[in-house]
Design a protein that fits this description.
mainly beta, four-stranded antiparallel beta sheet, 6% helix, globular
Length: 209
Amino acid sequence: MMLGAFEATGDYKRTQRASCRIQYWPLHQYSFPPLSKRSMNIVVSQCKLINDASFDVARDGSFLAVLTSQRAVALSNPSNVRNSNSNEAFVSGYSLEPANIGQPLFSLPVCSSSLLVNISPSNQLIFVATTPRRRFDRFFTPKEPLGHVFKWDNKLKSYFHNNSLLFPKGSVPSHYYTINCAKWLPTEGDGLVFGNSHGELIICQPNHL
């Protein structure tokens, strides 16, 4: 799987608007794939990649989840953006099954400052980390979420917002941090582990998610 180049580079704000593509290449073949062909084997034609944590592939290889813009979702499924804010971002799922590779599976509205996506081992949960907009101590509020958890609903055949990850109770400005990386623990139900901008490694148990 290859990631297309940014159409814009530079600071964080410009990268937020950058557009990337995701292509699939069978690297097990003996011949080197034609990576220069931008229109071949497209899985996601337009997405937002801040870094390699901005998308994740399900453990069983059935789909990927990636941050996308309103424009990208509108191209694949206009009904998902009829009532959305023009500045809204989405976490979208795309099939990796050979028979329907690149088929849109779902699109969930998330905060425009979302940076990270991670799928749980059983594909039942998706975690999306965000960067709180209020970045200065005098504006600090522990009520701003660090991330959101989406859970699969077998009846709806889709994910829904299940919970939000908040700062611990009693947090003060000096405890402010952002999430740099996050992974669901290998055993389903054990929780989520994430690293923050203070250099700390934190494990969240299921009752805190």
